[in-house]
Amino acid sequence: MKIFLTNNDFHEVGFVGPKFTWCNNKKGVDRILERLDRCFLNPVAISSKNWFFVRHLAQVASDHCPILLNFTVQQASKKILRFEDVWASNKASMAVLEKVWRRNYKGNALKILNRKMKKSLKALYFWGKAKMQNLLSLKKELLFQIVELQLK
C-alpha cells in the first residue's frame, strides 16, 4: 500500500473524531480496534484553494465508522493595515493626512472620527505603496550592511 501511495503521490488527510474506524464488535480482551478507513488526496487537490479535513463519525449500524470529507473554500482575507513608522518620518505624509481630514463626513462625532481614522490609514497605505515602496528594501539593505560592518 505504501508503494502505491508513494508512486501516485497520494497524501493522507488529517482527521477529527475517534482514532479508530473499525471494531470487530467483541467485548473485553477479544475486542480489536483499528484505523482501517482513510482518505487520501493527490497534489492537485492539496494545492487547490480548499481546506480539507476528515471527520470520523460515530459507529452506528456497521463495524466501521463512517468518514466524512469536509472541505471549505478559503476566502481571501482582508489585509490588516497597520501604521508604518516610516510614514511619520516623511513630511509628505502630512499632506495626505490633511487631505483626508479636510473632507466632511456625516454622522455622530465618534463615527466621523472612526471614518477619518480608517480613511487616513488607507490613504497612507496607498500613498506609501506608490511613493515609498523602495524605502523598505533600502532599509533592509542598509541593516544588512550595518551587520556586515559590525562583523568585520
TrEMBL record:
It comes from the Eukaryota. SUPFAM superfamilies: DNase I-like. Gene3D superfamilies: Endonuclease/exonuclease/phosphatase. This is Threonine dehydratase. It comes from Dendrobium catenatum.
